[in-house]
Write the C-alpha cells for this entry.
Amino acid sequence: MNKPAYQSSYVEGIKEFNTIDLNGLSSIKLLNRHDTKFVMPIEILNDVLNELKNDYKALNIDDNLIGKYETQYYDSPDLSLYRIHQNGKKSRFKIRTRSYLNNNESFLEIKQKNNKNRTSKK
C-alpha cells in the first residue's frame, strides 16, 4: 500500500527548514495576502523545498511539521459560492470551518478574494 505524500520521504526536505511555533506565527500578518498555487510532480518536491528553506519557515506544532486538518465548506443550497469559483470569477468568498487535528483547535473562517488576487481572511 502506498503511503500518503505527507507521510512519505517526499517531504523529508521540510526537516531542513527553520521552524516557527503558533506564538511566533501570531506576529506574522497572514490575513491579507497574495496566494499563488502551483502544480508539480511530487518527485521534485524536495528539490523545491531545498530552494525555499532559506526564505521560509515551517510551522511546528507539538513537534509536528506536517499538520493534519479537516475542513468543512459552507455554501447555499444551489452551490452558488462553488459555481462562482468554478466559473473563474475573480471576486469571491468562501466560508469554512477548519479543525487542526494535532492540537484540537477549530476556526470559523471567512475568506474573501478580490479581483486583484488579494485574499483577506477573518
